[in-house]
Write a structure and sequence with these properties.
Elements lengths: L1 H164 L2
């Protein structure tokens, strides 16, 4: 009986072991099922994230293209502005040279005008002195003729008196 009991006990242990294995199996199966659900969920999430990543890559490419286009436009505008500034600078330099040339010409004309004015002033002073000299000589001439005229007047009056006295 003891043999039988030992066999029963061994069978009982095998049954318990089988139940334990079955329990572990069910737990592992449930875990596997749960892991499969998580796997499917993560797979769906992975696909979703891949789609988002692809959309973000496309958006990034569009933004980079837009950035490059705007940079090209800004560079073109900058080059146009630089060209315009350089053109205006060149025009201003040319204008400045013309103004300097005109100022030099004005200075030359002013200098010439001043020389002519000084020359004319000297001539006018010379003419004024000559006029004064002529006026003085005329005055002397008039004074000398005045004496002659007075003499001639005096003589003619005395002749008139003498003529009147004669019949």
């Amino acid at each position: 009986m003891s043999k039988h009991f030992d066999q029963m006990q061994a069978i009982h242990e095998q049954v318990n072991s089988a139940k334990s294995i079955e329990k572990d199996y069910k737990a592992l199966k449930a875990k596997l099922s749960n892991d499969e659900l998580v796997d499917k969920s993560l797979g769906a999430k992975l696909v979703e994230l891949q789609v988002k990543a692809q959309q973000l890559d496309e958006c990034k490419k569009l933004l980079e293209k837009e950035r490059d286009t705007k940079c090209e436009e800004a560079t073109q505008e900058l080059n146009n502005i630089k060209s315009e500034v350089e053109s205006r600078r060149h025009d201003l330099r040319a204008r400045q040279r013309k103004v300097e040339a005109v100022l030099t010409e004005v200075d030359a004309i002013t200098s010439k005008t001043n020389m002519v004015r000084e020359s004319r002033v000297a001539e006018v002073q010379k003419l004024v002195r000559k006029r004064e000299e002529i006026a003085e000589q005329f005055q002397q001439y008039m004074n000398s003729i005045g004496h002659l005229l007075q003499c001639a007047d005096g003589c003619s009056q005395s002749k008139n008196i003498d003529l009147k006295d004669q019949p």
